[in-house]
Design brief:
alpha+beta; DUF3301; 35% helix; elongated; 6 strands
């Protein structure tokens, strides 16, 4: 097996890992947004979140993780769409903000 083939396989493996990690983080963010909305009697619209920011960040214990900021919309039962945000470092939730309401992760 040549060196270029090894690098190609390594690149594909890293891409697969990154996509898998991103999907796990997205599912966790959806669950956090859903729980936060439910706890406040709100409705999560479209049952989804949108990745708005992705950047590397040092974690509290020194490891390097991806910091992700997800946006979502919810409603209080009227026709208004209100923005919310979930911020994650790796797979740990840093914060969840519901418009003017703030919710700590459970």
């Amino acid at each position: 097996m040549s060196v270029s083939t090894l690098f190609g396989l390594l690149g594909v493996a890293l891409l697969v890992w990154f996509v898998h990690d991103a999907l796990r983080a997205r599912e966790a963010a959806i669950a956090v947004a859903r729980r936060a909305c439910s706890a406040q009697g709100l409705q999560l619209l479209d049952d989804t979140v949108e990745l708005r920011e992705l950047r590397p960040q040092r974690a509290l214990r020194g490891g390097l993780h991806w910091r992700r900021r997800y946006a979502f919309e919810f409603t209080r039962g009227d026709d208004r769409r209100i923005d919310g945000v979930v911020i994650m470092c790796g797979h740990r939730v840093e914060s969840c903000v519901l418009g003017a309401l703030e919710s700590s992760p459970s």
